[in-house]
Amino acid sequence: TPPDYLGAVINVLGPHNYFGERALITQEPRAASIRALQKTRCFAFDQKDVPLSSVLSGSKQATSERMAEVNSKYGTDVYDIDMISNQFSAANTANQQRGSVNSPDAIRGVDVDEDYVIPPMEDNALRSDSNDRVISLLVRFKQIRRAAKCFEYIMKSRPNFGDAGEARRRALLVSKLTRSQREEFTDLFHIIDSSRDGFVSMIELRRAMETVGEGRSDDELREMINNANPNIDGNAEIDLGAFMGVMAEAEFYYLFLDTFELLDVNNTGYVSSQDLDRVLCGVRDLISDDRMSIIDTEDNLQVDYETYANMLLGKPL
C-alpha cells in the first residue's frame, strides 16, 4: 500500500467528539486510524484514570445497546456479511500483525498484483510516444467527464447541513468504494487541483467542467461546491475528503440508476420487483452459494427506482 494510505473512511467526527473507546470496551487491538483534516486540539486519557463505574475502565461489561452504538460508530456493522465475515476478521488480525499501517509488509494479491502478468507486446504495438500521449489524454478526459457528471448530481442534492448523520452516510459510501476507485478519484482530485494546494476552488472546477464541454454559471458552480461538504453551509472550496464523498455518492447513484434503466425497457420510471430480484440473484450466484431471494416479496410489485436508488444511498425519503 502507498505510505499515505490510511484505509477506507468509516466515519467523520466533529468538534467535542471522541474516539478510541471501542478498544477499551472490547479489549480488542485497535483496527482504525484517526486523521485530522485541519488543526485540531485533542485530549488523551489513560485507562487507569477512568472511574471503575465506567465501562471504559475495563471492569464493567457494556450493554448490548452500548455495543451496538459503538459498532455502528466504527462501521463494524457495515461489514457484517456472512460471505466475507471470516475474510474481514482475518484481515483485521493481519493488519495488527503487520505493524503500522504506514509500514506494512506487502501482501500478495492485496498490495502487489503478483498474479497479473502483462502480455508481451509486438514490436510495433503502441510504441509511438504520440499514441501513448493521445491515449493518456483521452483517459484523463474520461475521468474529468465522469467527475463533471458527479458534480451535476451533487448540485441537485439537498444535503442537511450540519447533520452528523449526513456526513456519516457519505463516509460509509466512501468505505464501499474499491481500492482502485479510491486511487482513481484521488488522482482525479489532484488533476483538477491545478494549484496543488489541497483544495479545488471555483476557478479550478470551472476549468475542469469547461474542458469537457460542461460550462456552468458562477451560481451553479457555487452550488456544487457548497453541496460537496454537508458539514458546513457556505463552502468556498472542496478538500479531498469532500471530493471523495461527492464521487462515491454520485458513483453509486448512477450505478443503481443505470442498472434499473436497463430493466425499464418502456422508460416508465418503474421496474418490477421480480426482474430486479432476478438480476441481483444472478450476479450473487456468480460469487456465492447462497440461494435465498434478495427482494423478499411474493407479489410482483412495481418499484419507483429513483426513490429506491435514494433509499439504497441512505437518503431520507
Task: Describe this protein's structure.
With 317 residues, this protein is mostly helical. It has 11 helices and 4 strands. The strands form 2 sheets. It has a two-stranded antiparallel sheet. It starts with 20 loop residues before the first helix and ends in a 5-residue tail after the last helix.
Short description:
The chain has helices spanning 21-26, 64-73, 85-98, 129-156, 164-175, 179-192, 202-211, 218-228, 240-263, 273-287, 305-312, and strands at 199-200, 238-239, 270-272, 302-304.
Task: Furnish the topology, listing elements before pairings.
Blueprint (H helix, E strand, L loop, with lengths): L20 H6 L37 H10 L11 H14 L30 H28 L7 H12 L3 H14 L6 E2 L1 H10 L6 H11 L9 E2 H24 L6 E3 H15 L14 E3 H8 L5
Notable features of this structure?
11 helices; 4 strands; disordered N terminus; two-stranded antiparallel sheet; two-stranded antiparallel ribbon; 317 residues; globular; mainly alpha
N-to-C terminal Cα separation, in Å? 39 Å
Report on the biggest sheet: 2 strands, antiparallel
Rounded to an integer in angstroms, the radius of gyration calculated over CA atoms is: 23 Å
Secondary-structure element series: HHHHHHEHHEHEHEH
User: What are the low-pLDDT stretches, counting only 5+ consecutive residues below 50?
Assistant: 1-5, 78-84, 96-103
Strand content: under 5%
Number of discrete helical segments: 11
Gross geometry: globular
Count of DSSP strands: 4
Computed structural class: mainly alpha
Kindly state the percentage of residues in helix.
40-55%
**What's the overall average pLDDT, rounded?**
75
Q: How do the strands line up in the largest sheet?
A: 1-2
